[in-house]
Amino acid sequence: xxxxxxxxxxxxxxxxxxxxxxxxxxxxxxxxxxxxxxxxxxxxxxxxxxxxxxxxxxxxxxxxxxxxxxxxxxxxxxxxxxxxxxxxxxxxxxxxxxxxxxxxxxxxxxxxxxxxxxxxxxxxxxxxxxxxxxxxxxxxxxxxxxxxxxxxxxxxxxxxxxxxxxxxxxxxxxxxxxxxxxxxxxxxxxxxxxxxxxxxxxxxxxxxxxxxxxxxxxxxxxxxxxxxxxxxxxxxxxxxxxxxxxxxxxxxxxxxxxxxxxxxxxxxxxxxxxxxxxxxxxxxxxxxxxxxxx
Length: 294
Prior knowledge:
By secondary structure, the chain is of the alpha/beta class. The protein has helices at residues 21-32, 63-67, 85-97, 119-128, 149-157, 174-186, 205-216, 227-235, 240-254, 264-269, 276-285, and strands at 12-15, 36-41, 51-54, 70-75, 102-106, 131-137, 159-162, 168-169, 194-197, 203-204, 221-224. A 7-stranded parallel β-sheet has the order 3-2-1-4-5-6-9, sandwiched between helices. It has a two-stranded parallel sheet with strand order 7-11. A two-stranded antiparallel ribbon has the order 8-10. Helix 4 (119-128) links the parallel strand 5 (102-106) and strand 6 (131-137). The longest helix is centred in the last third of the chain and has 15 residues, at 240-254. It starts with 11 loop residues before the first strand and ends in a 9-residue tail after the last helix.
């Protein structure tokens, strides 16, 4: 599904999580290409070029208005919910019943079809829609520039805490994820498969700390923790079940589970995935996410 041709005209796309890391960028790329977008969020926050609509995964009364006139949907599951299928699957079945033809689900490279959390939604999606895709990005490069705990750690004390050891990850730019989302939502044919999205190289968190330090001119260190230590830190911030899931993911990285790169970004968008150094330079030059040279 490689193409550099303009995206064909389509109906209205509903983007859930429209103010989030990938949702906001997907809205921007769709509207820039001339597509009609409904931007869904709990507060119906205005998103440039879109129709803002109130939407809450846990309030089914908001779903009908969000789906009105929509023929495709970008599905960003509720953050921090260890069982998103309980609310996402009823919504998707309702969406199909009212005429939505295509759904693109945001999952994660670490979660297999039928696995925990959003893996259950992944497994059910082909049985609901004839046109679908599951995006399984690796860890976001924006985890080090936005509102993620790693970014906060960098800004407050120059430390990144993980239980990944020397494990390597194919970190991916959220702009690349959004580019793939826009193509899979509006292209002439849906992929009808899952796509693991990575950047062009794998990096350890020690590598990440060194690159961020170079980009900002500030000292940044990676401080390794044990699985138990990380779970304890996370439990203070979120439900224990979800904290354990995240600590397990770090442990899997330490064992090599994310030491891979794919060509999915290029195969869908027709251009290569961006590397971490160039993304850090871009964020710094635009003064985004606290990435500024000292």
